[in-house]
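Weekly modeling sync, notes
Attendees: AB, CL, MP (scribe)

Item 1: holo prediction request
CL wants a bound-state model with calcium ion before deciding which constructs to order. AB pointed out that an apo prediction alone won't tell us much about the pocket. Agreed to run with the ligand included and paste results into these notes for async review.

Input as submitted:
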Amino acid sequence: MVEKILVVEDELALRETLEYNLARLGYQVFTAADGFEALALVDAQRPDLVLLDLMLPGLDGFEICRRLRREHSMPVLMLTARADEIDKVVGLEVGADDYLTKPFSMRELLARVKALLRRVQLLREELTPREDTSPTMRSRMRSRSPSSEKLRLGDLIFDTTRHEIYRGAELLHLKPKEYELLSYLALHRGRVLTRERILEEVWGWDFSGGTRTVDVHIRWLREKIEDDPANPLRIVTVRGTGYRFEG
Ligand code: CA
């Protein structure tokens, strides 16, 4: 199976250079010059990786990346000429997996692309059931099959079809409300969520318990997904307000 790469870049010369160099390495390359074209191609072609220019006419790279992240888990490598925007790009507000500052060397870009695709490949192999001892080829083909029902955030993998969440290769043992809460946080990552809003959206209007319920469930989740639950880096407390999921 040939890996597909979508190049989103409005500068014709750079777009063509990228297309040429990626195709030469054997990737199937699609190109888009603006955001709407890019989103349409993502839906139609399901690329394995997106190379995304930040400054584009119409929808900019931030917005495209945010929209992509609602439904897709493929890696996004952001290209930017604005060094001051880097924190925002790699921050979970936008959700790019990596970035390169223009001008960059083609060699560096190709190395990053390979590394990102390799990371996805390893992850999929980890997720492949172990009982199957079929030859490598078969497992490779299967692991490359579309997995649009899986959402990846850092080392967390959300299998929305099976209602399961993995941390790396490890299946998290979550109660139904913990699953719903973590999914809800993930869908709204980077945003401050009040306890009241979480309670309403995860537990519903008719729930009689107070916001303390939210705190308790957050604590349980932290024990499962934080390296140090006492100093959480993923589910961050926003003092006096609620929580923010960092990824
Ligand atoms: Ca541009």
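Recorded for review: The chain has nine helices and twelve strands.
Action items: CL to compare against the apo run; MP to circulate these notes.
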